[in-house]
Amino acid sequence: MEIELTKENYDGEVIKSNMPVLVDFWASWCGPCKMVAPIISQIAEEYNGKVKVCKVNVDDQGELAAQNAIVSIPTVILFIDGKPVKKIVGAHSLDDYEDAIDEFI
């Protein structure tokens, strides 16, 4: 399951999370974001119970995008203990995302 983040739930879901959090920054008009979406969904299933998977629509949540210095989408950030430990910019393969997660968990 993927959690849609807003400025209201961001701290509780990401910063105060007791498990690693993968956050996908995306927009509906972004072609590469659409290519990455099924991969992120697959990661949510594959790592269920080990990694929390969240999404941020940068058009709706510009403040969160700015707070995380998002300048290009898709951008996927892995947070551990509320701190970003890995940032992947652009569309990548499932293996790339899995490798990034496995490096830290």
Tell me what portion of residues adopts beta-strand conformation: 25-35%
CATH topology: Glutaredoxin
Report how far the terminal alpha carbons are from each other: 19 Å
In the CATH hierarchy, the architecture is 3-Layer(aba) Sandwich
Catalogue the unreliable spans. Answer: none
Structure description:
It is built from four helices and five strands, in the order βαβαβαββα. The protein has 105 residues and is α/β, with parallel strands linked by helices. The protein has one domain (2-104): Glutaredoxin, CATH 3.40.30.10. A five-stranded mixed β-sheet has the order 1-3-2-4-5. The longest helix has 16 residues, at 31-46. It is globular, with a radius of gyration of 12 Å. The two termini are 19 Å apart. 30% of the residues are buried. The mean pLDDT is 97.
Show the helix and strand layout.
Elements: E1 2-4, H1 10-15, E2 21-26, H2 31-46, E3 52-57, H3 62-67, E4 75-80, E5 83-89, H4 94-104
Parallel strand pairs: 1-3, 2-3
Antiparallel strand pairs: 2-4, 4-5
Main attributes?
Glutaredoxin, 27% strand, single chain, alpha/beta, 5 strands, five-stranded mixed β-sheet, 37% helix, 105 residues
Entry summary:
This protein has 105 residues and is an alpha/beta fold. Helix content is 37%, strand content 27%.
